[in-house]
Every structure is written in structure tokens, then in C-alpha cells.
Amino acid sequence: MASPPTCEFVPYLSINDATKAVAFYSRVFQIDPHLLLNMPDGRVMHCEFRIGNARFFVSEELPEHGGTPSPNRLGGTTVAIHLYVDDCDAIVKTMTDNDATVLMAPVDMFWGERFARVRDPFGHEWGISTQLREMSPDEIQTAAAAMFAEMAE
């Protein structure tokens, strides 16, 4: 079998009022945009954030140019961004201090991570995780089976 292609997945967040989103992500992640391009009318055409080895992009939804609708326009999202951080609780607090909504408070999960779910003010959902311990796939399967058995009682 041939080797899989080299690739990098980069979330591209479509947002109505991307200027506010750029300020939000800068505050929450304590970083400045790596690249910020504005259209002549001041709207965000493209913004790139880099956090460690990860990147994500932000732009105004720009329906007049065939842009992707934002979650707020759609009334929800079908994708969640999973972000690994050093301190799940601290990032969740920073996000909620900046008008994000906790969907699931931080909790230690059976797969060895502390995990929370948050919706940012622009409708994008984030899974925030801190690895507590390294677990093999077999250990995770065993822990999941035990959890499901406990739930069935």
C-alpha cells in the first residue's frame, strides 16, 4: 500500500462580523494574527492565527463572493474544532469571560483527557482538551465498555 499523502487540516471559520472575531481569538488565545487581510470596506477577507504547530483561518462570510455561511446564519454548525491545550479549565474560563457559552463544563473523561465543549460568540463550537494520561486504543475500548455497562445499570 502506498504512503498516504502529506497534508495539514486547517479549519477555516466563516463569521459574520469577523473583525470582532479576530479580537476575540486574539484575547482568548493571547496571540496576534499571523496574517490579516482586509477588504477595501474594512471587512476581514482572510486572517490566519497560529497556535504552536496549529493554524486556523477566519474570514467574513462574504455571501456576495460565494463565501461559506457562518453558523449564526445557518442557526448552528455541523463541525466542532477540537483544540488540545495545557490547561482546559483556564481556556474555558477565558472563553466564557469573553462571552462564549459553556455547552459542557470541563470533566475528566474515560479516554484520558479533561474535556469541555464551548460555543464561541460567533456560533463555532470548540472541544477543549488537556491530555491527562496516554492510553492505548485497547485501554480506551475497555474504559468505554465499563462506562457503557455502568450507564446500563
UniProtKB/TrEMBL annotation:
The keyword Lyase applies. Keywords: Lyase. Coiled coil: none annotated. Signal peptide: none annotated. GO terms for molecular function: lyase activity. Residues 6-131 form the VOC domain. The keyword Transport does not apply. PANTHER family: BNAUNNG04460D PROTEIN-RELATED, VOC DOMAIN-CONTAINING PROTEIN. This is Putative enzyme related to lactoylglutathione lyase.
